[in-house]
Amino acid sequence: MTATSPRALIVSGGWPGHQPHQFAEVICGMLESAGLQVTVADTLEILDDADTLRDYALIVPNWTMGRLSGDQSRHLRAAVEAGTGLGGFHGGMGDAFREDTDYQFMVGGQFVAHPGGIRRYQVDLTATSHPITHGLSGFEIESEQYYMHVDPSNTVLATTTFGGEHVAWIEGTVIPAAWVRPYGKGRVFYSSVGHDPREFAHPTVAELHRRGLLWAARRLG
After folding, report:
1. Rounded to two decimals, what is the model's pTM?
2. Domain 7-216 fold
């Protein structure tokens, strides 16, 4: 790693049930192995400095729930709009800062529920020519199957189909499970998989997320 290595920021905290600090170690390992210089912050105060945020190639929100100040939200969105990548997964990015609609527009979706809690379900890849998914196959995973409100302008990479055993009226509903989207000059990647760090022992899950983060950082495709 050199002084010119691209920099990544992981902002970890929020609801402890999603094990943000354990996930930070997993994400840090992924990014450092790809040659990025990683900073891990355990406070949202790092988002107070608008100029510093623009120096990062990638920002990874790893903060379930919580609340951004107005300035923190504006600084984060401005950095991505100017070209910084945004990437993350599960509640750390898709159930973060519930009151911040502008943040949700940037992410491209927001968690609603996970009927049945932790359960085994199928993830189907739908955009197999994309650099993130090329050569990968669909997979089963034991996790929280996220039902989400999703922006229809996203480029969907993977979907999951709900049964009706827990909520009858969603039986057969297909919900995006991973997507990408532009936000100004920035790239955004999100996956709803990732409730527990042990899920990343699944080789396809690990590779999907590794590629997604690198794509957002413009280190892939």
Report:
1. 0.97
2. Rossmann fold (3.40.50)
